[in-house]
Design brief:
By secondary structure, the protein is mostly helical. It has an eight-stranded parallel beta barrel, surrounded by seven helices. Helix 21 links the parallel strand 4 and strand 5. Helix 11 crosses helix 27. It starts with 8 loop residues before the first helix and ends with a helix.
Length: 978
């Protein structure tokens, strides 16, 4: 392997663009007497975390010195000095910035961007590895908030519940119905390559070994530090960018990696921690079933706006998942065979196990021939050998399944497990026999719990599709059959509902064997047929949920049920079905309409009967991303809060259990943020021991890349659900506060929409001053950036690139714009109104959560960098208007910042969370120069746009690669994308 080229002084600098050419100049900007300040150090980072941060910075500089020379190291230090001690960009003299940044050659800019990206990822690993121990001492200085957060862990939660006088019977009923599902998605886009994720995990494992070695073996510690340096060097020489646009099955592979490496082992430990903590405080209560916490996935099944997710892709996804989990079970059974060496000479065996061994002998004589002599006195090992063989046959059956879901399935393999229940029964038989002789095996208990959670499906796949697809498909089908007097799409909602209900209660088929329809309709029909075959082959747990995005009316759900009836997923005679239809309410208007839609649905006798066959449980999904893009942060959060309140009241009035599916994003602008506070901020009885939450692709690594991280995250969510279900988290005078929030949300929405949707020139401003076009070209997702078409409007743009773009340019506008005006105007109306808001902040978890999220986001905003994007990237004809828009945005930011500080009674942002504050500042200091470099490269790239000869000596592909690397780096530094 050849090393990266060492760049000379001449290569580090180029003259400003002049005409059509760039030429090298023999001049080093580092030699100029420009004193912008000292490069920030890691001051304030004490303890083990501080030592590790300093270690990785030393490793980082050492590798860069070896690979690129002292010039790059010096340049990086100088660039990092271009910000204040708080991590913000300085009011800088433009010529000095241009001298350091604009004169860089493309090669130098790329090396600099790569270096900063590597730095961010290294410190991310260190913080993930050590932050919990550090944060327990530093986080939440405010005593009231500290009391709340102390109950994140089981070991503190249950004593707290006991101290609060929670009746054991009430806790037992809650634990019996406890149900938490974390649903992994492929978006926001996973910007970091799978290869890089592997290196991150390897680096983290070495850090764990170093922690131990420093206490016991200085020699081993020295060796491990050398290994860490080697890992950083290999990382530096690895390409950060995806080599090609990932396929959906690539995304499936990325996601399954977390199950294979972390979650399979983490789940039984989570249950063990809960059980032991519960017993210490409530010794007579039984813990919940291990399956109380399980997983779903949209990766390979979510087709909303992604034409690459086909019926065949979903079929293959299910096969991938089953193959992975069967492989893990086979490994576990092999390990268990080594453990259970109990001899008949020294222990009794249950008679049922001996009978089972006789039956296994008849069914699998080849296994008996191979192992009967070896294990003649070791019945558990012999039984496990039969189990292993049956698992291997089950995996072989999975491999024989055709790639296409439309091809006939091969006949079942003799003696393969038909389902996970058969496998579980064999394991429980072993456990029963051990228990009868006074033995227990933790390893076996863990495997049983893993089977209870993961089955043979691993994760529950949710199908998702936009409601308009179903309407268009049925319009085409009905028109082909000529059974309606006019097109279905033109019918009124009442007519649609009546017709659909009539069709749902007949056995008349609608779909011909040969499908003479458009590609879209044919693919939709194929999806439903594949869904039925999935349930037949893999069992019901593989896929029982169909999420209907952009749900607006009752017919949206009935259309899906009609399609389900046509493929055999619903029987109109028995009234039984195996598919749950889940409306997804996304925009503010849809959220307001949601309770009315649910009420209308539950008033239909047909649907009420259908729901009773599914345990009287109705799932409703609420979308955070599109409502935020539609109406702004404050309005979105309040409408979701209100919708939950009203939906819960509707469900209770009809005797139906409600499960809210929270479609949270990774960033605050898409509903992200700390899950613990978000769950406690849910209204009234809306949690009720059940919750379903999306885990976006961008946050998977930060939550699930390490076993300890995964357990901590799942423990935190579980603790919050239990606490929110048992203890009152809302105030007595909520009605009065609700009226105030309604007013604040309305005003905030007016301000937000006044800028984003009503301000002339804003769309052009957004496209010029953010890297939205370049983000759309990143090879990071199988999903297009826009829902449809190529029109450059805000409405068709997905929420992910919308938020991603504002994050890159350091505006972070979607997470706070409009909040400041609404708060300030309310405070100005009365002398005591500020005190009132301060009271709400301390007493109402919802309001505190909202303000805390805004505060956290504002700490990442850097208007100096944002102004640089506006000045440098606006076209000359739009510059004056762009600067006016920038000043309008800046005024709102300062207004919002001031109101947040007044309400929280803080003198500076994040005052009550010194750990997070330090973390943000640490990143900001290196994101600042990376932002300058990104602007420089984007300018060159856009000047090159559409020119065959090119305005610079670099090709468009080279410039695009440089810009992509800065996008990668800033995403790593900000710790999120969209």
């Amino acid at each position: 392997m050849t090393s990266s080229p060492r760049l000379t002084t001449a290569e580090w600098t180029v003259s400003p663009v002049n005409g059509l050419e760039e030429t090298f100049v023999e001049r080093d900007p580092l030699a100029q007497p420009i004193e912008l300040g000292k490069a920030p150090s890691l001051e304030g980072a004490d303890g083990l975390l501080g030592r590790r941060l300093r270690l990785v910075e030393e490793l980082w500089e050492s590798v860069l010195l070896q690979e690129c020379g002292q010039s790059l190291v010096d340049l990086l230090q100088r660039l990092r000095s271009m910000c204040s001690p708080e991590g913000q960009a300085l009011e800088y003299p433009v010529p000095e910035v241009l001298q350091i940044v604009e004169y860089l050659s493309l090669d130098a800019a790329i090396q600099t961007a790569r270096a900063f990206a590597l730095f961010f990822q290294l410190i991310n690993i260190v913080e993930q590895h050590y932050e919990r121990a550090e944060a327990s001492d530093m986080r939440m200085v405010d005593s009231q908030q500290r009391t709340v957060r102390e109950n994140e862990k089981f070991e503190r939660l249950f004593p707290h519940l006991r101290a609060q006088g929670v009746p054991p019977g009430l806790l037992r009923r809650l634990l019996d119905q406890l149900h938490i599902r974390m649903v992994f998605t492929a978006h926001p886009t996973e910007i970091v390559r799978h290869t890089i994720r592997e290196k991150q995990r390897a680096f983290s494992h070495l850090l764990s070994q170093l922690d131990w070695a420093e206490q016991s073996s200085p020699v081993q510690a020295s060796i491990l530090k050398e290994q860490l340096a080697e890992e950083v060097l290999l990382w530096w020489r690895t390409d950060e960018l995806h080599q090609a646009k990932p396929t959906v099955l690539n995304e499936v592979d990325y996601t399954l990696h977390y199950f294979e490496e972390v979650l399979f082992q983490a789940i039984p430990l989570l249950h063990e921690y809960l059980s032991r903590s519960l017993k210490n405080s409530f010794p007579h209560l039984e813990p919940p079933a291990a399956s109380f916490c399980n997983f779903g996935s949209w990766v390979g099944s979510d087709r909303d706006g992604n034409p690459s997710v086909t019926a065949d892709v979903t079929w293959q996804t299910a096969r991938y998942q089953r193959n992975l989990i069967l492989g893990k079970y086979i490994e576990s059974v092999k390990a268990l065979t080594k453990t259970l060496s109990i001899s008949l000479h020294w222990g009794d065996v249950d008679s049922q196990l001996l009978d089972a061994l006789e039956q296994d002998h008849r069914l699998l004589p080849e296994v008996y021939e191979s192992y009967s002599l070896q294990f003649r006195q070791e019945p558990y090992r012999l039984k496990l050998s039969y189990i292993q063989r049956r698992l291997e046959l089950t995996r072989e059956r999975n491999r024989q399944l055709a790639d296409s879901a439309n091809l006939p399935a091969p006949p079942p393999l003799a003696n393969a497990y038909a389902n996970a229940e058969e496998f579980l029964a064999d394991l429980q038989l072993i456990q029963k026999s051990l228990k009868s002789s006074g033995l227990a095996c933790r390893q076996l208990s863990h495997l049983i719990q893993q089977v209870e959670v993961f089955g043979f499906h691993l994760a529950h796949l949710d199908i998702r599709q936009d409601s308009s697809y179903h309407e268009a498909a049925l319009t085409e089908i009905f028109e082909y059959l000529r059974i309606l007097p006019r097109p279905y799409i033109e019918m009124a909602e009442e007519e649609k509902t009546a017709f659909l209900l009539q069709e749902l209660q007949t056995r008349r088929p609608l779909l011909p064997l040969e499908i003479p329809f458009s590609d879209k309709t044919a693919e939709l029909i194929a999806t439903f047929r594949t869904l039925r075959r999935l349930q037949q082959e893999f069992g019901l747990p593989i896929c029982q949920t169909y999420v209907i995005s952009m749900s607006r009316q009752i017919s949206d759900l009935l259309e899906v049920l009609l399609m389900a009836k046509e493929v055999g997923l619903y029987d109109p005679i028995s009234g039984q079905g195996s598919l749950a239809v889940v409306p997804l309410f996304e925009t503010v208007e849809d959220l307001k309409r949601a309770p009315e839609v649910l009420k209308g649905l539950l008033e239909i006798p047909f649907y009420r009967q259908y729901l009773s066959q599914q345990g009287d449980l109705q799932e409703v999904m609420l979308g955070y991303s599109d409502s935020n893009k539609d109406s702004g942060f404050l309005s979105s959060n309040w409408e979701i809060y209100k919708a939950q309140q009203m939906l819960q009241l509707v469900a209770e009035s009809y005797g139906v259990k409600l499960q809210i599916f929270h479609g949270r994003g990774g960033s605050v602008g898409r509903g992200g943020g700390p899950a613990y506070e978000a769950i406690l901020a849910q209204p009234g009885r809306s949690v009720g021991g059940r919750i379903k939450i999306t885990e976006q692709g961008e946050v998977l690594a930060s939550k699930y890349s390490l076993q300890d991280l995964a357990i901590f995250n799942l423990e935190t969510v579980t603790s919050a659900v239990i606490q929110a279900s048992l203890l009152r988290t809302y105030p007595n005078d909520l009605h009065e506060w609700s009226r105030l929030m309604e007013s604040l949300a309305d005003r905030s929405r007016q301000v937000y929409r006044g800028l984003v949707y009503e301000q002339e020139g804003f769309v052009e401003f957004f496209h010029e001053v953010t890297p939205i076009e370049e983000i759309s070209q990143l090879q990071i997702s199988s999903r297009p950036a826009r829902r449809s078409g190529s029109q450059k409007d805000i409405g068709s743009l997905r929420a992910i690139p919308w938020v991603f773009s504002w994050t890159q340019s350091r505006f972070l506008l979607p997470a706070w714009y409009g909040v400041g005006t609404a708060l300030q105007e309310y405070v100005a109306k009365g002398d005591h109104n500020l005190k009132h808001l301060q009271h709400l902040y301390h007493e109402w978890p919802f309001f505190r959560m909202v303000i805390s999220k805004v505060e956290m986001t504002l700490s990442k905003v850097d208007l100096q960098i944002a102004r640089h994007y506006v000045r440098e990237m606006s076209s000359p004809e739009n510059l004056e208007r762009a600067m006016e828009l920038f000043e309008r945005i800046a005024e709102e930011m300062y207004r919002t910042r001031e109101m947040v500080l007044q309400i929280t009674e803080h003198s500076e942002l994040l005052e009550n969370d010194p750990y997070l504050k330090r973390s943000v500042q640490l990143r900001n200091r290196s994101i600042v120069p990376l932002g300058f470099i990104q602007v420089s490269l984007l300018k060159r790239l856009r000047e090159n746009q559409g020119s065959r000869t090119g305005r610079t000596r670099y090709s468009r592909a080279e410039l695009l690669r440089g810009a992509m690397l800065t996008i990668n780096g800033i995403a790593a530094g900000m710790r999120n994308t969209g």
